[in-house]
Every structure is written in structure tokens, then in C-alpha cells.
From TrEMBL:
GO terms for cellular component: cytosol. GO terms for biological process: chemotaxis; signal transduction. PROSITE patterns: CHEW. It holds the Pfam family CheW. It comes from Vibrio parahaemolyticus. InterPro entries: CheW (IPR039315), CheW-like_dom_sf (IPR036061), CheW-lke_dom (IPR002545). This is Chemotaxis protein CheW. Residues 18-102 form the CheW-like domain.
Length: 102
């Protein structure tokens, strides 16, 4: 789950390649994901818990008939739990042929 997301254009000066990042904020830190890995950004929705899953796994969501595991990035980065607000989003990403939400 992420808060305060935006699409930002960054220029990689090493080879003049233009990269686009979806940025999000957790507490006072800003993180970025290559826009090519982002499938979509969802409003926070009900997450079904998965018994026996690691603490950083919030659970699963149904995304148009596909099951997507949702990871708690705060927990994964060792941050305190945050509250869900109107700005809370789930960023659905594809990495190494896996689709997950963060």
C-alpha cells in the first residue's frame, strides 16, 4: 500500500535515455518504480488475509478474475504501520513474470 503517488520523468544522464518512474511516499521517504513495471494503480480495496503467510503479506485481492498478492511495503521496509486513508493506493506491478500489489 502506498500513499501520494505520481508519475515523474527522470533523465538518465549516462546515456541520454529518458526514464519514467511512478513515485510513491512512505512516511518521509520517496520511492520509485519504473513505469514499465507498473500495470495499474488501484484505490485501496478489501484485501483477503492468507493464513500462514509471512507478516509482510497483507493478503490477496481479486483483480478482474486474477488473484494478486498484496505486500505491505511499510512492513517490508521496517516502518511502522500506517492508517488507510483516501490517498492510500495499491500499485500493481509485474516483475519477473509475477504480478503483485504493493
Amino acid at each position: 500500500m502506498s500513499q501520494a503517488f505520481e508519475v515523474e520523468v527522470k533523465k538518465d544522464t549516462s546515456n541520454d535515455e529518458v526514464l519514467q518512474w511512478v513515485t510513491f511516499q512512505l512516511e518521509e521517504e520517496t520511492y520509485g518504480i519504473n513505469v514499465m513495471q507498473v500495470r495499474e494503480v488501484l484505490r485501496y480495496t478489501e484485501i483477503a488475509p492468507v493464513p500462514g503467510a509471512p507478516d509482510y503479506v497483507l493478503g490477496i485481492i481479486n483483480l478482474r478474475g486474477n488473484v494478486v498478492t498484496v505486500i505491505d511495503t511499510r512492513s517490508r521496509f521496517g516502518l511502522m504501520e500506517g492508517e488507510v486513508t483516501d490517498n492510500t493506493r495499491i500499485i500493481v506491478i509485474e516483475s519477473e513474470r509475477q504480478v503483485i500489489g504493493i
